[in-house]
Amino acid sequence: FHQYEAKLYGSVLFFRFANGLDITLMILGILASLVNGATLPLMSLVLGEMCDHLIHGCLVQTNTTNYHNCTHSQGKLNEDIFMLTWFYVGIGATALIFGYMQVSFWVMTAARQTRRIQKQFFHSMLAQDISWFDGNDIGELNTRMTEDINKIGEGIGDKVALLFQNLTAFSVGLVIGLIKSWKLTLVTLSTSPLIMASAAVCCKMVISLTSKELSAYSKAGAVAEEVLSSIRTVIAFGAQEKEIQRYTQNLKDARDVGIKKAIVSKMSIGAVYLFMNGTYGLAFWYGTSLILNGEPGYSIGTILAVFFSVIHSSYCLGSAIPHFETFTVAREAAFSIFQIIDRKPSIDNFSTTGYKPECIKGTIEFKNVSFSYPSRPAMKVLKGLNLKVKSGETVALVGPSGSGKSTMVQLLQRLYDPEEGSITVDDNDIRALNVRHYRKHVGVVSQEPVLFGTTISNNIKYGRDAVTEEEMETAAKEATAYDFIMELPNKFNTLVGEKGVQMSGGQKQKIAIARALVRNPKILILDEATSALDTESELAVQAALEKASKVRTTIMVAHRLSTVQSADLIVMVKEGTVVEKGRHAELMAKRGLYYSLMMAQDIEKADERGQSVACSEGNTSCVSLCAMSSVKLDCTDQSVESIHHPETSLPEVSLLKILKLNKTEWSSVVLGTLASVLNGSVHPAFSIIFAKMVTIFEDHDKSTLKRDAEIYSVILVIFGIVCFVSYFMQGYFYGQAGESLAMRLRRLAFKAMLYQDIAWFDDKENSTGALTTTLATDIEEIQGATISRIGIIAQNATNMGLSVIISFIYGWEMTLLILSVAPVLVFTGMIGTSAATGFANKNKQELKHAGKIATEAMENIRTIVSLTREKTFEQMYEEKLQTQHRNNLKKAQIVGGCYAFGHAFLYFAHAAAFQFGAYLVQAGRMTPEGMFIVFTAIAYGALAIGETLVWAPEYSKAKCGAAHLLALLEKKPTIDSCSQKGKKPDTCEGHVEFREVSFFYPCRPDVLILRDLSFSIEKGKTVAFVGSIGCGKSTSVQLLQRFYDPVKGQVLLDGVDAKELDVQWLRSQIATVAQEPVLFNGSVAENIAYGDNSRVVPLEEIKEAARAANIHSFIEGLPEKYNTQVGLRGAQLSGGQKQRLAIARALLRKPKILLLDEATSSLDNESAKVVQLALEEARRGRTCLMVAHRLSTIQNADLIVVLQNGKIKEQGTHQELLRKRDVYFKLVKAQSVHCVT
Predict the structure, then answer these.
(1) Residue 1074 contacts residue 993 (beta carbons within 8 Å)
(2) What whole-number distance in Å separates Cα of residue 1000 and Cα of residue 1006?
(3) Nearest to 303 by CA among 187, 192, 193
(4) Angle formed by the axes of helices 870-922 and 787-819, to 10°?
(5) Which residues have a Cβ under 8 Å from the Cβ of 362 and sit 6 or more positions away?
(6) Residue 879 CB partners (closer than 8 Å, separation 6+)
């Protein structure tokens, strides 16, 4: 069924994206191909006539003694040859015009259609429902977007023109053969069924193998995308080698399939040549028999005309096979692409249907809603849930992790539809509303804020169409983001980096809140919106959100119950149902589940609980812990790009340097090359045999003729056997070498990426999308122009070399004339190659940028859908494609012109060669046999040159790809994780010291984050960092992991500078739990075992870590327990569940140093309390550095350090800092705590 549909797509719908102009171009291109294809058989007809005239003329000269008759005969011969020469010139002119049309028109229409396919594929992916993304790997989709569409472009370009040209040459040659001698032609065609049967079988096998190969590469691409987008986690846990092995495993599958495909592909060509040469032998033997038997109308010219027509037809049929394979591969690639394009999503993000109410008031009702995620249908998340929210109300959803709170808000955004029941807004079922219109009235701030790799300004403006500068600044002020933004060198034009990596967690959250506020929605959804903020920022933002909530319906999801006390309605959700609801006072009076959670939040142990202390604006007791105060270094005012991305020139890559990439596969390359040389020797040898076959008719002895005809027929069959064996050897050895090269280079490139330092990934040029595009396209282009092309170069070089040598032996004068045109052909080829290289370089950059946009969109599809920014990203993607499209249209003219000129010039050279050859024969300076040897040898040599020039664009792409690859492989990271040079102490005590550390991020060198920071953590002690957003807390954690090195000062471990330690050893002593937990697309067990990648972790040990992180019972309740798949980036789990898995992963590592960067920020209070106990247990005997906003989690720390502007403001224990009644005291007061002094 799969193959049938693939065929259907290939045959009927393959050109479905062609418009009127494209159809016109294709029709004209096909017509041009038909005309151009007819030129080669017509040349055979002219060649046959010339042979007849020459042989006849020579016989007349030999047998004529009368001078007058001889002179008349020579004059008639000259006249006939001259006329036939002009036929040659006419054929060449035709080839010049129509050759240009066929190539340029098809390249143009391919570029146009490919761009539409790219646009439509991206559009279709953006239109899909979220459940579809849950079941599809983002990395695999991105690989298909690059590799598969690239294959489609190859399949519908000039290769189609060449396919039609070769098929036409085959058909016209066949017709000429039938007209000239139907008997001889039918004998010649007797082996055609064998040729067709072998081609059909091979084609079917190639389709099947191509499908498997594409699938394997897609899986490898998915791994690469997942790993590169989570590079900090991978590096922190020292999992580079593990991920390289995971990536390589998929590459091995692709390699094994690729080798089989290469063998089958070459065997199909070898079979064609075997049957063709067998046919030649049979045809020559039979043709000779017809002449010897005196059949009327048969002469050497007739036989040669038929022979050459059929030979050229068969040669063209053989030449058509690679182009047909390219078309077949494109057809198979189109199957998966068109499947996605044609899929009708259950919730179409671009739908224009549905009711569009003029205004939405915001009354929401959940009616008997039941729901389970499509990826886990057996597990009900919501069970008959009912809830009504009045317009303008603020409703808080609280409850344990995994109770269904985040699922409710996803259903409210209509990311999914309920299985049972309904959700109404203003009494309208949201399924009846136009989805885009509805979502534009909904604003969302999620638990894990998503920023896009552009400026702060653009990120905020993504909230709504046509946002003014004033509205943007107002929203930033309301979100308390304005101050820290204005302190940045480029203010609102500062780039946030991929996924906002250049911003701290709190800064990202503030920008996301500003984006939601500028949207001015009727329904505001806050899913743990302030979880990443420090206390003061949280209070300020909370006040702004409460103010904003007065004019809209607000749904809040929160674990910190202090943020929901003022809600109009608090809803307690547990196990997918509403168990309690009411106002704060009502629920406290009930003393139910809400009351229990509320009590668990208190961090005071005093008997008397106080009331909340509000910090109003201007309150002198509230010390402003302002956002990071930037310190501008002495540097010129320049844009971020000019600082980060100086122009770097790629290394110059020669053919020899590209070939050196194959040195590991030298034995297979050598054997494959020997097979190519053997194959390349066949045509020069054939030219000698052919000339002798022609000239045997000068002898009138029938027995000699018959004997020679039989000998030469057998030799032709031997040539066929040699071709089959040599092609099989090429397929086997080059297949092994080529696929091994591709696997090795992909592995090396992936490894080189994983071992770069974090600063390299901060560069926007090295985004995940750009890097995955490099892995997908650069390697394929290098493979396509090295291994398999080595065979073509060796074969054609042998062909041309031997042809020239033989030609010089048999007729040096004629050879010199023909070779005089070689510089013209070479120059034409150089122009084409140079132009193709230039366009390949430009296109590669644009393709990387487009890939970056596509990857970013797919990774953050939930945010894009929530913001209704699908069309924005679609437009950005199309803009990148536009430049590439213009380059392709220019390339079409140059490639078409160079091909046509080179193709036509061969005909002109043939015309001159025959005219000059005839003159030499008449002058007695050359024999007819010598002339035919030279002509045939050089003709085949010219075909070899032409075939080599056809692949010039592929070489250009390979040269460009090799330059990028070598630049990557040769780049030495500043912090080399692969290095074994550093110290590896026998033990690690865990004493940490920062000694006068100053630091700025390499991508923002004019913003100093840490300034002469000094502190010490004794062995086994716990130090907690608190402070405002951007004060350097998380930066300190990254420096300790040696993601970066200080610009000044030292980070020491047990008194040894971290720079002197082996990087892998250093990181093996550290485990981290980050603010935004990163999980991988695998099972629960695999994600926990990720904590220790040096061994195979037993399941019991995994369970022990899960118990310690308070998640074991939850896992045991899952349908597949520890084998349950967590989904891409843990999409199947709630935020709290992901965080607890991350904690289990860290505990399994059994580190000497534990880094907790907001480790419990995503947990509900009940879970946080239990996990906190587990973490406190885990901290025993270990050095621990904590970053926290929840002060309840750090009061037992041995030392609490308050950071401000990259320096220590105050430090001490919890009680000591409370007694000081300074910054820390006021932070605690702001968290509604009365402290006992």
Answers:
(1) no
(2) 7
(3) 187
(4) 40
(5) 389, 391, 392, 425, 426, 522, 523, 552, 553
(6) none
| Number of neighbouring beta carbons within 10 Å of residue 787 | 27
Question: Nearest 5°: phi and psi at 444?
Answer: -135, 135
Share of the chain above pLDDT 90, in %: 8
DSSP-derived letter for residue 430 is G
First-to-last alpha carbon distance for the chain, in angstroms, is 77
Q: 64: which DSSP letter? A: -
Radius of gyration of the chain (CA): 38
**E strand or H helix at 422, and its extent?**
strand 420-425
pLDDT, the chain, mean: 80
Weakest-pLDDT range from 650-664, 688-702, 916-930, 1079-1093? 650-664
**CA-to-CA distance for 840 and 615, rounded, in angstroms?**
61
d(CA 462, CA 560): 28
Q: Which of 169-183, 253-267, 351-365, 524-538 has the lowest mean pLDDT?
A: 524-538
> Cβ neighbours of residue 1107 under 8 Å, at least 6 residues apart?
none
Reported confidence tier of residue 151, pLDDT bands at 50, 70, 90? confident
The two three-digit tokens of residue 456, written as one number: 């702060």
| Long-range pairs of 1216-1223 with CB within 8 A, sequence gap ≥ 24 | 1222/623, 1223/623, 1223/625
**According to the model, what pLDDT value does residue 626 have?**
35
Name all domains of the chain by residue range, CATH numbers in brackets.
2-12+20-347+649-963 (1.20.1560.10), 1077-1150 (3.40.50.300)
**Angstrom distance (rounded) from CA 134 to CA 128:** 11
pLDDT above 70 covers a percentage of the chain that reads 84
- pLDDT of amino acid 56: 63
Per-residue confidence (pLDDT) for residue 613, from 0 to 100 = 33
Residue in this structure with the two tokens 């592995």, named with its chain if needed: 747
The residues near 206 (Cβ < 8 Å, ≥ 6 apart) are: 261, 264, 265, 268, 325, 328, 329
Q: Is the torsion defined by CA of 1214, 1217, 1223, 1228 positive or negative?
A: positive
**How many whole angstroms from its chain centre is CA 407?**
31
Confidence at residue 614, expressed as pLDDT on a 0 to 100 scale: 32
The length of the chain in residues reads 1237
Query: d(Cα 98, Cα 95) in Å, to the nearest integer?
Result: 5
Least confident of 66-70, 430-434, 472-476, 1060-1064: 66-70
Give dist(CA 617, CA 632) in Å, integer: 29
β-bridge mates for residue 1207, sequence order: 1204
CB 990 within 8 A of CB 1153: yes
- Yes or no: say if 334 and 211 are a contact pair by the CB < 8 Å rule: no
Four-CA torsion 256, 258, 264, 270, nearest 10 degrees: -120
In degrees, rounded to 5, the angle at the alpha carbon of residue 1210 between the alpha carbons of residues 1208 and 1213 is 120
Residue 799 carries which DSSP code? H
Q: Looking at residue 1163, what is its pLDDT?
A: 62
Label residue 978 by pLDDT band (50, 70, 90).
confident
Place of tokens 């001698």: 181
Between CA 542 and CA 480 the distance in angstroms is 10
The DSSP symbol for 971 reads: P
Give 72's contacts (C-beta < 8 A, 6+ positions apart): none
pLDDT at 469 over 70: yes
Distances (CA, A) of 879 to 56, 112, 497, 849, 850: 67, 14, 21, 10, 9
Phi, psi (degrees; rounded to nearest 5) at 981: -80, -25
Q: How far is CA 923 from CA 61, 75, 696, 919, in A?
A: 11, 13, 21, 6
Position 144 confidence tier, pLDDT thresholds 50, 70, 90: confident
> Structure tokens of 6?
């693939």
Q: CB neighbours of 616 closer than 8 A, spacing ≥ 6? A: none
Query: The tokens of 810 are what?
Result: 């048999």
> What is residue 1180's predicted lDDT score, i.e. its pLDDT?
74
**DSSP code of residue 1200:** E
